[in-house]
Amino acid sequence: MQHIKPLAALLMAYFILIIWRDIYAFSCVILIIPMIVMSIMMIGLFQFAAKKRWCLATCYFQPSSLLYQIFTGKIFVFIRAILTALFLTVVLLVQMVLWEWKILVILLMNLFLLYGLYHFILSSLKLSIHPQMRFVIAKNWTVSINLLMMIFVLAGVQYYSFIPDYLDPSLAKTLNNATVHLVSECDMVRYLLQMGAEKDAFSWWLMVTGNEWISDQVISGIVWTLFLLSGGVAVWGYNRYLIEVADLFLVKEENSEITSHHNH
């Protein structure tokens, strides 16, 4: 029963991304979705960085020292969290439009794996990590472990998938074919989607058509690796987004349990 609310919230967060995939062509009012996703990511990124710096400051420096003030200062951490969240949000939402449905189904199944892994790590750290840091550490371990797993899954799916229909011996025609269907009334959205589509199309063109003049297997491998890393960054953003949603409910449950225990 305790898992119903977090899982329902995760499913809702997932379907917000699916809704974005269906309505990105509308006016710039739809930018409210990226703003929501970015805000959720930013909270977790800021929380992790701020607590880590606070731990270092209290461990090594006197409270009256300049270094203590620098490490516990939150302005730089806040700015970095905003920029990182913005980058992850853009990459994630662009890929949500470009990914095939089979990858989206895999991401849906991964949602349950992510939650189970987070709950397992959280429970494992209960007796060894201070409560203030336990949720932060569990979130970051979960995101990292799941990301490594999903990169291999994405690599397999992409490697054995069909070659995109938009590929053509001509690079210019390939890029045009890949972006011609990406239209949006919001210029910013259209520009970002076309950039993402052109990046993927160029990578596919190099790996398939460009093999005639890329004889070096190392260069071909680098192109393939960069292509997968792009998807990996999107999965990183996806994991970070979902883990923060799950954390909202698990932290509340933890606090209520602690309060109930103290009352007894």
Largest sheet: none
The 3D shape can be described as: globular
Q: Roughly what is the average pLDDT, rounded to an integer?
A: 84
* Helix content range: over 70%
* Assembly classification: single chain
Terminus-to-terminus distance: 23 Å
Number of helices: 9
Beta-strand level of the residues, as a percent range?
under 5%
> What's the structural domain tally?
1
Estimated structural class = mainly alpha
Radius of gyration, in angstroms, nearest whole number: 21 Å
| Helix-strand topology string | HHHHHHHHH
Keywords: Membrane, Transmembrane, Transmembrane helix
Transmembrane segments: 7-23, 29-50, 71-97, 103-122, 143-163, 218-238
Gist?
Keywords: Membrane, Transmembrane, Transmembrane helix. With 264 residues, this protein is an all-alpha fold.
